[in-house]
Amino acid sequence: MTANAQITGKTPLLGFCAYGSGTGKTTLLASLIPVLNAHGLRISVIKNAHHSFDIDHPGKDSYRLRESGAVQMLLGSRHRWALMTELSRIPDRQPDDPGLAELLTHIDASLADLILVEGFRNEAIPKIEIYRPELDNPLLSNHDSYVIAIASNAKVATHLPLLDLNNPEEIAAFILDWLKITPQPGPANTERFPE
């Protein structure tokens, strides 16, 4: 079981977790999102990165401005916008990675029907565990009561629903059923996470 307090929000959260990297979380989500879209769901995604990353490119104006010392750089066009925040430039900020609760404050919940969360395996949110027995990793669900199903490429001894990792339609059907039984926010729950 995780030690973190349960995170809830105005929009349902569903995590996809695994013991380690290389299990196919991103691959699954990339094939699952179009299926969920086809069912009319608007999807937002939060992905945990355990390493430094950059979505900007050397030579571009936005890169030059950010590298010159800007704490934040917002780049926008008629197609999309992206906000980059240099956390190392914020005085008195702890050097830890931002947690899921902090990142959720930057998601506009009004634009999504479901927020998928990749990684953040220790967060207290409902999760589908990605499990490949050939990797010989332990099952997280044995110790995490927030795992609601296992998506695997082989049989797994579990009391939880077992989903075919290679069948995004089956996983989407499970998610759609789960959304029907998941309590939806109402007037009493309007402050579940900041907008």
Detailed description of the structure:
It is globular and about 55 Å long. The protein contains four helices and eight strands; from the N terminus they run βαβαββαββββα. The strands form two sheets. Strands 2-5-1-6-7-8 form a six-stranded parallel sheet. Helix 1 (25-38) packs across helix 4. The chain has helices at 25-38, 61-67, 100-104, 168-181; strands spanning 13-17, 43-47, 72-76, 81-85, 114-118, 127-131, 147-152, 162-164. By secondary structure, it is of the alpha/beta class. It has two domains: 13-50 and 110-189, Rossmann fold (3-Layer(aba) Sandwich), CATH 3.40.50; 51-96, no CATH class.
Layout of secondary structure:
Elements: E1 13-17, H1 25-38, E2 43-47, H2 61-67, E3 72-76, E4 81-85, H3 100-104, E5 114-118, E6 127-131, E7 147-152, E8 162-164, H4 168-181
Parallel strand pairs: 1-5, 1-6, 2-5, 6-7, 7-8
Antiparallel strand pairs: 3-4
Helix pairs in contact: 1-4
Summarize the structure.
The protein is an alpha/beta fold and 195 residues long.
